[in-house]
Amino acid sequence: MHILVTGGAGYIGSHTCILLLEAGYEVIVFDNFSNASKESIKRVEKIAGKPITVIEGDIRHREDLDKIFDAYKIDAVIHFAGLKAVGESVEEPLNYYDNNIHGTIVLCEAMAAHGCRSIVFSSSATVYGEPHTTPIKEDFPLSATNPYGRSKLFIEEMLRDLYISDPAWKIVLLRYFNPVGAHISGTIGEDPHGIPNNLMPFIAQTAVGKRAFLSVFGDDYDTHDGTGVRDYIHVMDLADGHVKALEKIESFNEVMTINLGTGKGYSVLDMVKAFEKASGKHVPYKIAPRRAGDIAKCFADPSYAKKILGWEATRSIKEMCEDSWRWQSNNPNGYAEEIVGVAEKDPRVNHS
Length: 352
Ligand code: NAD
Ligand code: UFG
Known about the structure:
Blueprint: E1 2-6, H1 11-22, E2 26-31, H2 38-48, E3 53-56, H3 62-71, E4 74-79, H4 86-91, H5 93-113, E5 118-124, H6 147-165, E6 170-176, E7 178-180, H7 199-207, E8 214-217, E9 229-230, E10 232-234, H8 235-248, E11 256-260, E12 266-267, H9 268-279, E13 285-288, E14 297-298, H10 303-309, H11 317-330
Uridine-5'-diphosphate-4-deoxy-4-fluoro-alpha-D-galactose binds next to helix 7 and strand 8.
């Protein structure tokens, strides 16, 4: 079976490609490399010992997509491609709506035109906005507080409308919680451009000496130690969720919306301690003001994924930290060659 993986060179896509190859699928990666390196695919091929067909192109360009659908009989699409930085989405909303929403429309049009109607879509726990309670179930109210989150919400609605218009579509919406970690080989991992927005890459870069300290955004939340609580999930567990979704997709007779999380919440300081233990490195931190838009607690009720997909996360926080550290320490500059100096200040925080 041929699986088209849009955004397959990125963080979650590259890890998913390994499991797809191992499961015997033919993998075609389609990526514009706006936030990825070609090196990630080379390393995935090495890990899996199998080749990947890589096509450079943009999901907003119908002619790029038509070339693939004309050349291969694609059985299903896993759709990772899109922009994901919350802060950037506030500054560049049109770019986010264009890449994420317009891109998904063009992709679905190309799929329908070529008789491919099976899609697994990367949604996010961000669609729950500020949840009234935790753990979060799939039927909780939805809302968005920024253009990135709104793009995910719109796409979910759009895909539901598509199914209503033509029930031949097979659609799985996977709502990820906080993906962290790396493949156990330490050869592929998350490689954010510039200063990381997310906690785990920032901790890892601090431990390796690229950042002077971590800013902990708020210690006065209503949580066990005052810092924000999230559901961190190992990227290989997340990747496995996609393979399970693909195995079941043809049997679904409705749009499936599924949380992918562990069901456990860890605070920022829990993560710092776990990372220090896993890496043997000190992670200096300073308490900073709350980050705008952050919520106190967010963790999943993952029971529906277990019931429907027979999937559950198996990797611990210890493994998440150990695997992140292996990737970070083996590749201090990610996939790039250049050396970046140590930042003495966190430019995201107002120091005045
Ligand atoms: P990523 O940036 O590493 O991967 C996205 C990939 O899509 C990149 O390789 C990028 O080059 C490619 N891409 C972007 N726009 C494109 C376009 N117009 N055409 C073709 N390729 C394009 O991000 P990731 O962390 O692997 O996330 C994958 C998906 O999961 C995204 O849709 C993201 O919104 C979603 N998601 C991520 C997280 C997270 O914390 N990482 C959480 C929830 C949901
Ligand atoms: N945090 C810090 N310092 C940092 C970075 C983060 O203290 O330098 C804290 C945050 O305040 C939060 C926790 O660490 O309490 C996690 O923050 P992340 O930025 O790693 O993750 P978020 O939960 O804010 O958001 C992430 C993605 C979103 C996605 C969401 C749910 O960035 O795109 O998970 O999947 F929608």
